[in-house]
Design a protein that fits this description.
Length: 760
């Protein structure tokens, strides 16, 4: 062996040794919290001080010939008794136990759900072969919000940040079924979900106290084979870790009062309502529900006063509610999944002097945070429906019939005998003979009607003049449909006759209605014209370029092509008393007069608030209060920026609006997507402020969604196209804005507003 080969061998050995030391150092850093936890266990068990516990842990590790981290994990597993490292008889290797406990430590010390997702993915799921993980937060309406994720592209996570109620996804299956769902191949399941190119999928509900607060979704790159029991238990234990960060609302205890908003909602109902909170046992199961509030319209099923029910548990007040498949099960499911339950007919039972009483009622059960609202309306359904049908037939002058083809049995109701002026003793008229009782001019049409129903087996209707035995002629419409067996054989015919003798007056009323519709259409056109004029007065298509303190601001506004769609897009650019420059753009939901007047309210309010000298985030906070409390149901998105010419710093904040585009050095890029709720959605909202230092030659473009959105393209692609268009060289700022407006390929027929800010 040459000297060079010996040198290379020594170098390779040194590199391997250093790599081992680095890996050990990283493992020690990741497991520092576990080592400290093990020291705490020794302090409690040995009743010694921290220094003695540290020395004892080091001594035990040395004698066992292992690292302190490995020993610490063994100690924690011994005293925890949980399922995080639960395994079958074959046992779990040390490395697996360490990474699972490291993932647990990282999740418990994480400040938010995003950090939990990253910790679980790095330490527990990636070693299992998983390529991505998502943590969903379950809303009170059973919607799903992406609270944390790892392994997905930023654009993919942004597209799946919210899943409305009712959309079938693997996470929703786990939420509704309240158990883990393992899908070998997502493509074959037909369910849409985040990361659709990833094949294997597992979704596990996460919750505490009987209430599911979210779902843990794990993705594998290829089809997923059956997993061993150890992996199943570990995944369920990891889902419990997610619940710790998702469950931000503690379940109401026996003495916890219901929120005032929920009690006000219950008291505003005209039907009996109960506000219930779960009673949870030490092992986390629901044993009962406490009645936290009884509304003013409450009428007890057993005739008791409200005070006899308020404060009691549900099973104390209504013991029969625990019958299998009855009210208690429905309430427990709604609390667990957040999916509302509604039934037009449901049996409710109560005890009166130990005698059960069952009534039929329409029931609605909804979850509000950690509480449940139960509303019912008692009804005698059979009697009510019979009376309703009888009155409807009488008022509508309708009579029904049914003919059985094989037996020849014909059934008419009383309204049909009265319509035909026929005595019951004379019996009903078969459908085949109806032409014998019609005006001769109507016979051909009736023969075609009968042939369509009886021979062609198709639904049909016809109008004719019925000549009754008493000499009275009635204008009648007959409607019939065939009843067929699976082979297409005609079993029966059912239908109805309706007296339409007042057709003339109906046509007169219809003519009057058409005239009124024409007047209404004219009024709508005038309102649309007024809205457009109002928009053009306040928001002219072009605005003189503002030049102040070396900053140039230009605006363009283009109303919707259809006058009835003219909405509430607005812009503003003004020099403030503080010698700073306010730049803003916004979009009011809705169209017409309401959208235009809402735009005026928010635009003028922002101008007035900006005179206080407050920053953009504070201005949006105040503007949200205006939209929520002082305006008539206004919802809007907006961006507010304040430019300081002394420092060239533009401070800005957004309220649900698309981020601005900064063009610098011939390259257009979106500014960061700062968090911020749309205006008017909630009474309390806070906003984050960002800063950008403008350099000579910079151009900042603010805009509304009418400039970029397309129905056939994802929003990310639309924004990329805007950045590309904005970075094309133009002679000046006005030409740039005109170019963006003229070459916009948006197809949403919405208003478009563009504001350009340029530092020459």
């Amino acid at each position: 062996m040459t000297a060079d080969e010996v040198g290379v061998g020594r170098l390779a050995g040194t590199v391997a040794r250093l790599r081992r030391e680095i890996d050990e150092a990283r493992a020690e850093a990741d497991g520092r919290a576990l080592v400290e936890l093990a020291k705490g266990v020794l302090v409690e068990r040995l009743r010694c001080g921290p220094a003695q516990a540290a020395a004892q842990l080091a001594l035990l590790a040395e004698r066992a010939g292992t690292t302190q981290l490995t020993l610490a994990v063994d100690i924690i597993n011994e005293v925890s008794g949980d399922e995080l490292t639960a395994v079958p008889a074959a046992g779990t290797d040390t490395a697996t136990a360490i990474r699972l406990r490291t993932a647990e430590s990282g999740a418990l010390h994480a400040g938010d759900t995003q950090s939990v997702a990253e910790s679980l993915f790095a330490h527990a799921l990636a070693p299992l072969g998983a390529s991505a993980v998502a943590i969903w937060l379950a809303g009170a309406d059973s919607s799903l919000t992406l609270a944390g994720h790892a392994g997905f592209a930023a654009g993919e996570a942004n597209r799946w940040r919210y899943v409305p109620p009712g959309v079938p996804t693997p996470a929703r299956r786990a939420l509704v079924e309240r158990e883990a769902v393992w899908i070998p191949d997502l493509g074959e399941s037909g369910l849409p979900s985040i990361g659709s190119t990833l094949r294997g999928r597992a979704t596990v509900p996460a919750g505490t106290g009987g209430r599911i607060t979210g779902v843990l979704e794990i993705c594998w790159p290829s089809p997923l084979p059956p997993q061993p029991l150890s992996v199943l238990k570990q995944v369920e234990a990891l889902a419990e870790l997610c619940a710790a960060t998702l469950d931000i609302t503690a379940p109401a205890g026996p003495a916890a009062p219901a929120p005032s908003e929920l009690t006000d909602l219950a008291d505003g109902l005209l039907d009996p309502a109960l506000v219930l909170g779960p009673e949870v046992s030490p092992d986390g199961t629901i044993t009962d529900f406490r009645v936290h509030h009884v509304n003013s319209a409450f009428v007890d099923l057993a005739g008791r006063p409200r005070t006899a029910v308020a404060g009691k548990t549900l099973l104390e007040a209504y013991p029969l509610a625990a019958a299998e498949g009855d009210l208690f099960d429905k309430i427990e499911r709604v609390l667990g999944t957040g999916e509302a339950f509604r039934a037009e007919q449901m049996n409710l039972a109560a005890l009166i002097d130990e005698v059960p009483l069952t009534v039929t009622a329409g029931v609605s059960i909804t979850r509000h945070g950690a509480l449940v609202l139960v509303v019912w309306r008692v009804q005698d359904e059979t009697t009510r429906l019979a009376n309703l049908l009888q009155h409807a037939q009488r008022l509508g002058r309708v009579g029904g019939f049914e003919e059985e083809r094989h037996s020849g049995t014909i059934v008419w109701n009383s309204q049909l005998y009265a319509l035909h002026g026929r005595d019951r003793g004379a019996g009903p008229i078969p459908l085949e003979e109806i032409a014998d009782h019609a005006h001769p001019d109507d016979v051909p049409a009736l023969n075609g009607f009968v042939q369509t129903v009886l021979r062609d087996h198709r639904h049909a209707s016809a109008a004719f003049r019925l000549q009754r035995p008493d000499g009275v002629t009635r204008h009648v419409r007959v409607i019939a449909e065939p009843v067929l067996d699976p082979l297409g054989t005609l079993l029966a015919v059912r239908g109805a006759y309706q007296d339409i003798s007042a057709q003339h007056w109906t046509e007169v009323a219809l003519s009057a209605t058409q005239d009124q519709l024409a007047i209404t259409a004219q009024e709508a056109a005038e309102r649309n014209k007024l809205t457009l004029q109002l928009q053009q007065v306040i928001m002219p298509p072009t605005h003189p370029t503002l030049e102040a303190f070396g900053l140039r601001v230009a605006v363009r506004y283009q109303p919707a092509a259809q006058e009835e769609l003219v909405g509430g897009d607005w812009y503003d650019a003004v020099v403030l008393p503080s010698k700073q420059i306010l730049v803003s753009v916004g979009d009011i939901t809705g169209h017409g007069i309401k959208g235009a007047t809402g735009m005026v309210v928010l635009r003028n309010a922002l101008r007035g608030l900006a005179a206080t000298g407050a920053g953009p985030a504070q201005l949006l906070t105040w503007l949200n209060l205006v939209a929520h409390h002082l305006a008539d149901h206004i919802f809007a998105t907006a961006i507010c920026g304040v430019y300081d010419p002394n420092t060239r710093v533009l401070r800005w904040a957004r309220a649900g609006h698309l981020p601005p585009v900064l063009v610098r050095g011939g390259r257009g890029e979106l500014l960061p997507m700062l968090p911020g709720m749309m205006l008017g959605a909630f009474a309390e909202a806070s906003y984050v402020e960002g800063e950008v230092v403008l350099e000579s030659g910079d151009t900042l473009v603010l805009y509304t969604d009418g400039l970029v959105e397309r129905r056939d393209l994802p929003l990310d692609d639309c924004l990329d196209r805007l950045c590309a268009a904005a970075q094309e060289p133009r002679a000046n700022l006005d030409e740039l804005l005109d170019h963006l407006l003229v070459h916009s390929d948006s197809n949403t027929d919405d208003d478009t507003c563009v504001v350009g800010v340029q530092l020459p």
